[in-house]
Fold these 3 entries.
Entry 1:
Amino acid sequence: MQRIYQRECWVALIAFAVVTFLTHIFPVYFLFPAITTFTIFGFPAHYLLTMVVGWLVLMPAYWYYIKVSEQIDQEIEQYEAATEPPARTATAAARAAGGADD
């Protein structure tokens, strides 16, 4: 069970790193300053580039993250269903209050 949760944590951390890397692309403008000088449809090219990377490129990344997360959640549900503890008839508080018939 612990391996499943570790895998879920690693997937979340990797997804966070990918999203952070792709949404913080401003260092590219310092490396290639010519990007900021030309326009596309009258808008500065670096605005469009940021939107394209921020939205269109991240959509498949989010889709893949959701798909992997759902598989991990299904593994957790299967594990819990296989090792489900027996149901209790009443809690100790209910028995103490006299509200539960044993």
Entry 2:
Amino acid sequence: MVDNILKDATSQTFLGVRIAQYWSDLLLWEKFFNEELHPYTTIIELGTGNGAMSMYLNIQARSRGMVFASYDVRVSTISQVSRLPSQLGFDAIVGNVFDDKTVDFVKKLIDKHGETPFVIFGDNGNKPMEWKVYGPLLRPGDFFVVHDWNTEFKAEDIPEAGRKIEFVMEELCEETDSLTRWMRILE
């Protein structure tokens, strides 16, 4: 019973909004923020979805003095998110994550943050392409986090960006059957 609750990404909600993450993924994000990412400034989410994970990341960001923004091409998603109370709201930007303007904007954000670790969370519809486009923009010490590990994104997709990475919390991800993987850029 407990295993079904923890690992059912089809019926879970966060603050009443459907979330496509396992509860263990949220616990691992908490561990990541507490242990792996100091100091930090910005998280960019590629793909807002229903907005629940976006709310979670935004709450994390605000409580830690970070900046958070989420991109999604679907106006309906952004409209739904914009109805959230202002204290839960976040920068939900309507835009195609593969559009040159979006990529250039994210690149400028990364460059602006100097040596402070930057996080890109790939959770849009084409994770291998997100990695291929955004992975090369990240600097050593930055993170690319991907959802739907071993379904929409696999180990064989990693060489596509031409980056050397290390997984963080890999053993915990395996133990909890997490759908998310955290990759630190090494070079």
Entry 3:
Amino acid sequence: MKKVVSAIFYTELNINEEVSELSKLKEVIFFEEIGDWAERWKNWISENGLPQNAARDLHEAVIRWTEKFERVLDREKGRLGVVQLETELLDVEKLRKSFDYLLSKEETEWLTDLERSCLEDARICILVRHPTPAEFMGMRCAESVLRRWYKWKTGQDIGKKGWGQILEELAEEYGKDYPEQLELLRYLNGTRNRLAHPEKISTQADAEHTFSIIIKFVKEAYMVMK
């Protein structure tokens, strides 16, 4: 009788990226434990790679995570919902992962906590197709950056000045050297005025276009003010 030997052959695709995605579950209610497991594996793999014996352990851990995930889903199915993530203009996969895929590490760290929070809220609202709050939160980020730019250039706080007045004062401050980056804010000022009217409802395309302009403005503001 021939003896049959079975073996596990592991082909490394991009296991670190896959485990990194799973580690985000640590921020999801009911799934924190799975996220913590994945976070520990992610850190271990980044330091040690993934030799064959570790790959076998990871394979067994994934089986446990899957069983745990299914048990939690079954237990909490009455309290959990499923949302289909869709976009019209932006790359849904990049947007799904976080705005860190749209900004560099340096650009992200340059933002204030408020600005990062507003962009994150805008990103999520776009993904679940709530365009009006998406634009509103994105504009909060843009206005905060504008306030910083104004103080950086003039040494003064904005106070109660409106966008139009701020842009005019910056135009006078810069003169013929007025930076083209601020022209983006002239467009966004129109969006801001539209959002001020309760009867105006943003479309999904409006929200995604505004978000992309705000990301562009953040990038260019960083280059000027860093």
